[in-house]
Design a protein that fits this description.
398 residues, alpha/beta, Aspartate Aminotransferase, domain 1, Aspartate Aminotransferase, domain 2, seven-stranded mixed beta sheet, four-stranded antiparallel beta sheet, 14 helices, 16% strand
Length: 398
């Protein structure tokens, strides 16, 4: 089976007949990322920031190289980048360490029903602790975040807004650039979830003018254990550490904590995962034009397939983005049954609420089937998927 990037991912050599359509949950892993972690632990394993010997210095330099590379990928300075273990930890860091600084009783925060629980729940908790009101915008007429409604929901007491750059359920385009502009003009802190976007296209936080942005390496063809949080320097200075421990202490009595982004990186970091992410970033930089072109073709193929089934499958969103994700329901058939039958043919898709409970509550449905692709997937796989789905629908007399 042909595929421009397929040989870069060992999974497909080991599973030649498997169709993996669950990349929005976690992507398959680059050989270069796997090798980078293996080489580190096999040949040069060391902690960083604890010693002055050769291995420790070399590991520390490699971590900082990845920090700089990640900063370049999103258009900021290395000093603006904080390593976490995941997007979830990054989101919690902002909501637990920054929002209490600016959020008070009587204030409000703004978000949408498209958000993943890792963004929504920390915001909800922070607003409840502060006695602030949480305002949730439902999907607009195009099933995305309506900028007009977003702006109308902001008043003088709105302190922050959390919104996704790309929903993990709906493939509808989200105008995060316009939402950031509104936040800047209204003096609202903008916190962006770019977890579903950055494997598919780059973003420039300086151009956007956002205050925070977070994402995870494991959805960008790398390994679990590495998350990134971008924060403006003035916010970094205002925030307290979420975790206290080794590596951030200057003196104990009186307690003095290091300044800058390092104060949020207490303890021993996951050096191997960070180094592995560096290899994935190299891949993304090298293919930053070819990946979007490949995925545009995949999106077109997905849209055409669902257009042929429009009387049987109900899409969530308009499937009009350049991100190859499509979620759908089939009236009268449970999501679990469809994914189980697909799984029996070794086609991996996901069913349920996709950790986006607020969206499904707003839509009034219990769940969906999600098809999510990466740059390694092929048009032939999409054809095989629709052939199998059609057989399932016939089996259920749909």
């Amino acid at each position: 089976m042909s595929g421009l990037f397929r040989d870069s991912f060992p999974f497909f050599k080991e599973n030649p007949d498997s169709i993996y359509f669950d990349s929005a949950s976690t992507s398959q892993k680059l050989k270069t990322s796997i090798d980078a972690m293996s080489d580190f632990y096999s040949k040069s394993c060391s902690n960083i920031g604890r010693a002055s010997y050769r291995l420790s210095n070399a590991a520390g330099m490699r971590v900082e190289e990845v920090r700089s590379r990640a900063a370049e990928y999103i258009g900021c300075e290395a000093s603006d980048v904080i390593f976490t273990k995941s997007a979830t930890e990054s989101s919690n860091l902002v909501c637990r360490s920054f929002l209490p600084v600016v959020l008070h009783e009587g204030d409000n925060v703004l978000t949408s029903s498209l958000e993943h629980n890792s963004a929504f729940l920390p915001l909800k908790t922070a607003s409840e602790r502060a006695g602030a009101h949480l305002r949730v915008i439902s999907p607009g007429k195009d099933d995305g975040i309506d900028p007009d409604e977003f702006e109308k929901s902001i008043d003088s007491n709105t302190k922050a807004a959390v919104f996704t750059c790309a929903s993990n359920v709906s493939s509808t385009k989200i105008d995060y650039t316009e939402l950031c502009r509104i936040c800047r003009e209204k003096g609202v802190i903008s916190i962006l979830d770019a977890t579903q976007l950055l494997a598919h296209k780059r973003i420039n936080v300086k151009s956007l003018g956002c205050d925070f942005l977070f994402f995870s390496a494991h959805k960008m063809y790398s390994l679990s254990g590495c998350g990134i949080l971008y924060a403006k320097r003035e916010h970094i200075d205002a925030m307290e550490p979420l975790l206290y421990g080794g590596g951030i202490v200057e003196t104990l009595s009186p307690l003095s904590i290091v300044s800058g982004n390092r104060k949020f990186e207490a303890g021993s970091p996951d050096v191997g995962s960070i180094i592995a992410f560096g290899a994935a970033l190299d891949f993304l930089f090298e293919n930053q034009d070819a990946i979007p072109e490949t995925e545009r073709k995949l999106c077109k193929k997905l849209r055409e397939g669902f257009e042929d089934l429009k009387d049987k499958c109900r899409l969530i969103g308009k499937a009009d983005s350049e991100i190859p994700v499509a979620s759908f329901t089939v009236p009268g058939i449970s999501d679990y049954d469809i994914t189980s039958y697909l799984g029996a043919s070794d086609i991996s898709v996901r069913s349920g609420r996709m950790c986006a409970h607020t969206l499904f509550d707003a839509l009034g449905i219990d769940g969906c089937i999600r098809v999510s692709l990466g740059c390694y997937n092929t048009e032939e796989e999409i054809s095989r998927f629709f052939d199998c789905l059609n057989r399932i629908l016939k089996k259920f007399s749909v």
